[in-house]
Amino acid sequence: MERRYHWHSASVRDFVAEPHTAIVGEHQGTIMNLVDAQAQPAQSAMLNIAREHPEKTLREASKLRHLKMPSHHAVYPEDVNLKRLGAVLAVAYERDLHSFAELLLLEKLGPRTLQSLALVADVVHGAPSRFNDPARFSFAHGGKDRHPFPVPLKTYDESINFLRNSLDAARVGNKEKLEGFRRLERFTRAVETNREPLADFDAAIAHENIISASLDGRSVFDDNPAGKQDSGLRIQKSEVIRRKVEDQRGRRFEDNPRQRSLF
Fold first, then answer.
1. Over 50: is that where the pLDDT of 247 sits?
2. Which of 158, 218, 240, 247 could cross-link to 113 by cystine, CB 3.0-4.6 Å?
């Protein structure tokens, strides 16, 4: 059935910029409101695309990087290329590799921050073929819903500060840190190729949950009493996972995170 809506209002000045005061109807999930005042850039982009020749639009679209996301939200071992993740963990936690990475970046960094920056470097400089396991990048700063672990706010801030300082330095002609960031991506890829590390997925997740409190790990569930109670259950679960991993592999985690083997 065709529906036509006729506007009659003394207050309407623009039919494509918030002409209505509300939207009423049956709830059908998230909607896209293209007449919102903040949607003007999107409106302009759509008009520009419509004016372009279709062949040019399709040619530009083919250059975009495509991410194939899994249908589930939680992160599982099969969602991650464990060899690529293993290289990142090796660079972060193996003493000799960590020291060399610090030389590349011209800055002393903790292992957890280096882990995040190595993954961010892969996002910025990695080849398109390396984006077929996008869930791997969740190991940079976790997830606000604890998938695969709570967001480590201290690490998050340290990563932002490093990138901001690098960009600020580049604006005044000092591009050494930005170049080091590019070299970090190449170095991590070389470790992946030459050492062929393989991440222990369960051990990596358990490790993140164990150190979460020390890094001010947060999630959206931490702002209410139910979330706090669930946080305790999460910590208890991580301890169970850790003991399970230790029992299966006959290894024991040391208290110093730098000495843990996670792959």
1. no
2. 158
CA distances from 161 to 63, 121, 165, 208 (A): 31, 15, 6, 21
Domain count, the chain: 1
Does residue 144 form part of some domain?
A: yes
- Amino acid identity of 251? R
Domain membership of residue 154 as a residue range:
77-259
Who's near 57: CB < 8 A, 6+ residues apart?
49
Asked whether residue 36 is domain-assigned, the answer is no
98 falls within a domain: yes
- Is residue 13 included in any domain, yes or no? no
Element (H, E) at 58: helix 54-61
Query: Taking the C-alpha atoms of 206, 101, 144 and 209 in order, what is their torsion angle to the nearest 10 degrees?
Result: 20
Q: Is the pLDDT of residue 116 over 80?
A: yes
**How far apart are the C-alpha atoms of 209 and 50, rounded to whole Å?**
48
Cβ–Cβ contacts within 10 Å for residue 91, how many? Answer: 25
The pTM of the full predicted model, rounded to 2 decimals, is 0.63
Give the number of other Cβ atoms within 10 Å of residue 230's Cβ. Answer: 15
| Separation CA 134–CA 118 (nearest Å) | 14
